[in-house]
Q: What sequence folds into this?
């Protein structure tokens, strides 16, 4: 079964976003309109693994700050009543699959999450460079087909 399918093929459509290497990614999330990807029932504390990001537009403020934005790994999406919109930016300089999800457990449990697959080929190349110690440990543990 190993290698038979790409892992992203096992997930619902829209769950994995492939991102190119060394690019600036800007994500804007409205808190009100589900038809354009908004987040109903907020505020939602959204967390991105693998990166700190610039919050260029915060909930409750319509001004964009590209000069000196705050850096976070979690941001609140704001509230539906205030017609909030949150915009974040980060640079794809850390290859790998990074989870972006709501930090409210039952929201996460019900699927409020996506995977940012950053530079998948670069991440795969890094993964295949196992150190001798890792190979020895895999052998001791009886792990097959490593890496």
A:
């Amino acid at each position: 079964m190993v290698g038979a399918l790409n892992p992203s093929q096992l997930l619902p459509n829209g769950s994995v976003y492939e991102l190119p290497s060394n690019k600036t990614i800007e994500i804007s999330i409205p808190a009100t309109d589900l038809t354009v990807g908004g987040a109903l029932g907020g505020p939602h504390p959204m967390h991105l693994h693998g990166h700190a990001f610039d919050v260029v537009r915060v909930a409750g403020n319509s001004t964009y700050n590209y000069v000196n934005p705050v850096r976070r790994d979690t941001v609140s999406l704001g509230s539906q009543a205030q017609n909030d919109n949150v915009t974040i930016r980060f640079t794809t300089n850390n290859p790998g699959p990074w989870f972006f999800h709501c930090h409210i457990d039952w929201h996460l449990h019900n699927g409020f999450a996506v995977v940012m697959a950053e530079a998948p080929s670069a991440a795969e190349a890094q993964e295949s460079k196992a150190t001798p110690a890792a190979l020895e440990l895999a052998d001791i543990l009886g792990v097959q087909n490593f890496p």
Q: What stands out?
A: Residues 47 and 103 are 6 Å apart (CA to CA). The chain has a mean pLDDT of 79. Residues 132-141 form the longest helix (10 residues). The beta strands are 16-19, 24-30, 45-48, 53-57, 70-72, 74-76, 85-91, 96-102, 113-118.
